[in-house]
Prior knowledge:
Layout: E1 2-5, H1 11-23, E2 27-32, E3 37-42, H2 45-50, E4 59-63, E5 84-86, E6 89-91, E7 97-101, H3 108-120, E8 125-127, H4 145-158, E9 162-165, H5 172-178, E10 181-184, H6 192-201, E11 205-208, H7 215-227, E12 233-237, H8 255-262, E13 267-269, H9 271-275, H10 278-290, E14 295-301, E15 315-316, H11 320-331
Parallel strand pairs: 7-8, 7-14, 8-9, 9-10, 10-11, 11-12, 12-13, 13-14, 14-15
Antiparallel strand pairs: 1-3, 1-4, 2-3, 5-6
Amino acid sequence: MMIIMKPSATESQVEAVVERIESVGARAHLSRGDEVTVIGAIGDREHVARLELEGSPGVAEVVPILKPYKLASSQLRAGERSVLDIGGAQVGGEHFALIAGPCTVESLDQTVQTARAVRDAGATLFRGGAYKPRTSPYAFQGLGQEGLRMLAEAKAQTGLPVVTELMDARDIEAVLEVADVVQVGARNMQNYPLLAEVGRSGCPVLLKRGLSATLDELLMAAEYILKEGNPNVMLCERGIRTFETAYRFTLDLMAVPVLKELSHLPVIVDPSHAAGRRDLVLPLSLAAAAVGADGIIVEVHPSPDEAICDGPQALNLDDFADFASAVQGATALAGKALRTA
Length: 341
Ligand code: PEP
Ligand code: MN
């Protein structure tokens, strides 16, 4: 249920409503807009309905939240969008985030060199995997803790906040020591205990859409994180599996405006994993910017032919500055700006 307060509602009237919601074991989620305060009552709908909050002092209206996800729903925020603060960099609103870096951390040199170059070209955040979800158990699985130390060094040298994947809740402490954003990969989108764990951590989360997940399933996965009291979630469209075999996955760009209609959370696009091909990354990035994405996450490598992981889709580091300025030009199409250093 959503309790919309009158513009004239006083602080004590808001508090009284919150107390009554909590008295039946539901959680009250306060959202203060410029005009009105909206209180989301998350819990047993019957119990909240029995409170008969309509007509209580300061209450304008009580409306049900129709979607199965509540905290992720745009309805809860009355049209206001979430803007996340990641170590001083904003994601969402009128900001466009350029997240770039290698698929996997391979060496200190490769990591720091890439971080420096993407920072100089205007990247907002640095990405790099230390724990890699690989289709084959025989493939390189990432450098683990050693990789995390390299990411920490890259962060120290460039000041760029770090996005890195967490696959196993047992690694969360180590990952949180360096991560400014924890990535939950496509294959773990429905790993509910992991989602709850990153939710409890409070650390910002980049949640990737599962290979065959619907938008409702993605938003329900986000709800698991939000429900633990962590509001810092960004959604990521990274291509879904369709009957098409000419490219790795099908980038579902319609997901961007539709997710933004359904949810207040920022939406990021990953053209690298969708395409699996370097030549498609620029056009898909421009399209993502034009359709209103809040940012993109792309893979970059100093010598893609020698990359251990995902080389064919990695942008060449030497081309990255041109890539970034082309993307910057496209962000204006959707009224956004990429703030370059
Ligand atoms: C990645 O970002 O390197 C990755 C493995 O992504 P996804 O989970 O989207 O496949
Ligand atoms: Mn990759």
